[in-house]
Amino acid sequence: MISGNTRAVVLLGAQRFDPTLADAVAELGVEGSIAAITAGWQEREEEDDELHDHLGGRTVNLRLHARAEEVFKNDPDLHAAHRERQAILRHRQDFYRIRLEHALEAQHVIASRAAPKDILRDEARASIQAIRDIDRMHLERCVRDHKAFEERWRPTERPAVADQIAEIAEIVKGCDAIAIAGGHVASLLNRLRMFDIAKLAAGKVVFAWCGGAMAVSERVVLFHHSPPQGPGAAEVLDEGLALVGDVVCLPQPEFRLRLDDRERISVLARRFAPATCLALPARSRVTWLKRGPKNPSGILALRDDGTHTKFEVSGAGGIGS
Amino acid sequence: MKRSMKPASASMRAAPKSAIQALIDSKPDGAKVDRFLEGRAIPIVEGPAVTFVWRGEANGVSLRHWIFGLESGSSLTRIPNTDLWHLTLDIPHGSRVEYKFEIHRADRSEWIEDPRNPNRARDPFGANSVLQGEGYAVPDWVRPDPTARPGLLEPFGFHSKAFGGMRSGHIYLPARFRKSRLYPLLVVHDGKDYLNFAAMKTVLDNLIERLEIPDMIVAFTDSPDRIREYPNTEQHARFLTEELLPDLTQRLPIIDRPQSRCLMGASFGAVAAFSTAYRYPGVWGRLLLQSGSFAFTDIGKTNRRGPLFDKVVEFVNQVRANPMAVSERVFMSCGVYESLIYENRSLVPLLDSTGMQVKFVEARDGHNWENWRDRLREGLSWLFPGPLMFIYE
Predict the structure, then answer these.
(1) Where in chain B is the domain with CATH 3.40.50.1820?
(2) CB B330 within 8 A of CB B358
(3) CB-based contact B385 A252, cutoff 8 Å
(4) What's B140-389's CATH class?
(5) What does pTM read for this prediction?
(6) Do B389 and A224 count as a contact with CB atoms less than 8 A apart?
(7) Residues 6+ away with beta carbon under 8 Å from A283
(8) Distance, CA of B377 to CA of A185 (rounded, Å)
(9) Residue A222 CB: number of other CB atoms within 10 A?
């Protein structure tokens, strides 16, 4: 399902080397200008020539990263408060990670034990539930911290932010679609929130890939099965914009996921159920309409048993995998 | 199920003959030895069997290595009617061993590098030949990568009140350094040696480029008298914590919280890092301790390592008597071929019991700079995970 008043949300795999965005844009019949968000590229935000050319010169970059820098420059109080909130969120993430790693370790140890099948099944369920509880508690704390920040500082009502939102709204008004690139997903999400992009996306088609796809989903999950520091634990970062519900977006599975590691895939799938974990390899895409997903191509759905399968849509437009 | 009636030994295949044994069996002359050596990688690695060879006239040849637990000075045997000397040892998978040959002649003996082995490791005392055992490969991230943007190394000088004199070193600034951003700080003991013998600037450039560690500021410090200053001296801890840290924090955009400050060092440098953190609990939130010289005694105060270690023993005994959480995360590494492996292994559960998060990594290597180089990726990325988990392009 999609929330808000977006016309459609298209989730795509990586666009860096073999872009398919233009095909998706054509398929949706978008002919007008496209507002581009490349804030995830941070300081390189405006190095968007390739994207601009790929979409036939129709993009207008919203410069959310640069605008946020201007906001911070013009409103030092908000900047200080923002930094303080980020520090709080970093602490939250650190402590959450400590709890999570222990819970995942316990799950692994229990899964490796020999015991009667029904006991193992029951204990496996309990292990996953413990992990889900930690995820949920972390997410609730993040939401609480955001809420406290919003209530105290009312950022969208402050002139430095409100002026930027008005400018952005004017640009978006003249566009048929919004294209959200990946990059640093926390930084991107932060800018999307600051300028209330979810609201501005009403009536538009949203194209989002990699970190962009993660940011527009309900819940942003950071993941990498083999980072240099040792076995990587997928961790919930925060709520996303929730333009698309019921899915967890996992881009770049080619080098981030061990799809043949059934135990880890199974944990991922069960941990976030009933949402479906979708691996989005390069060249994959799916369009989300009000009634559900349509025309998925190349997307993999992770299954509870640790396998993965081609993501397909059932006749009613619901998710079937 | 049918059972084989053959005895186990009969069903086992005979081990293939080693290259050196085949040569010996052929009763070689000089020409055969020439052909044997031509184009052959030396030492000869055949699975776990490693054959060291040296060719020349001598009264005797010994292998000198620094593997604790394996006798050093083992003699090579001369193949009759030739000038080829050989010694085969079982070397476990993934090992990296530094060695030299000791050549004995009538009036003298000399230690030399293996002239037929191009692999060398440099250190402050010169260079050693390196055996790269089966399964060991020099990590790709220690080699210069032309696509990695290079950071900047700037010398710095500093008048220390604690020491009553000048201290110098180098500051590393990441390639995309901006004054408006805030960075974690890593302070390295024996900075010049880490730069010269552990390729640390290249490693930083590469790991930052690969997003495996964040952009960071690194202070490479040096001591004019490390043997005296590094084993738990008050002046050294004061210099780092009350002088260098505030100075750098004032001059550079450094994140002002313990989690973003790390002390690291190897050998006595690890003792210096840990003892500084112990004297200033809560200031240094990250520690990277490589092959720490953490000598201690269970009874009495005399350690077998001699008087140089007396202050270390005193310190580690104190830690053992009064363990406390002085940092948040501690990464420790040690080679299993070092005599210090016992002390390092002993320290891990103790530190762990304090509530600090401790990660300990062992490697089949010795007490040397390339061992410390090879562990940098795992250590730095565990202490300071880079934005890899955050960037999806």
Answers:
(1) 140-389
(2) yes
(3) no
(4) alpha beta
(5) 0.89
(6) yes
(7) A13, A18, A20, A297, A298
(8) 24
(9) 21
| Matching CATH number, B20-132, of 3.20.20.70, 3.20.20.300, 2.60.40.10, 1.10.260.40 | 2.60.40.10
Select the residue of A210, A222, A227 nearest B393 (Cβ to Cβ). Answer: A210
Nearest to A189 by CA among A253, A146, A144, A133: A146
User: What is the secondary structure of A2-43 as a DSSP string?
Assistant: B-TT-SEEEEE---SSS--HHHHHHHTT--SEEEEE-GGGGG
Place of tokens 């930083």: B204
Q: Do A185 and B391 touch (CB under 8 A)?
A: yes
* Candidates B259, B357, B389; nearest CB to A227: B389
Per-residue pLDDT tens, chain A, 321 aa: give them: 666 688 899 999 999 888 999 999 999 999 999 999 999 999 899 999 999 999 999 999 999 999 999 999 999 999 999 999 999 999 999 999 999 999 999 999 999 999 999 999 999 999 999 999 999 999 999 999 999 999 999 999 999 999 999 999 999 999 999 999 999 999 999 999 999 999 999 999 999 999 999 999 999 999 999 899 887 899 999 999 999 989 999 999 999 999 999 999 999 999 999 999 999 999 999 999 988 899 999 999 999 999 999 999 875 444 444
Does the distance separating the beta carbons of A229 and B391 come in below 8 Å? no
Comma-separated ranges of CATH 2.60.40.10 domains in chain B? 20-132
Question: Considering CB atoms only, which of A94, A210, A228 is closest to B377?
Answer: A228
Unique residue bearing structure tokens 């030092």: A76
The number of residues making up chain A comes to 321
ipTM above 0.85, yes or no: yes
Between CA B335 and CA B367 the distance in angstroms is: 7
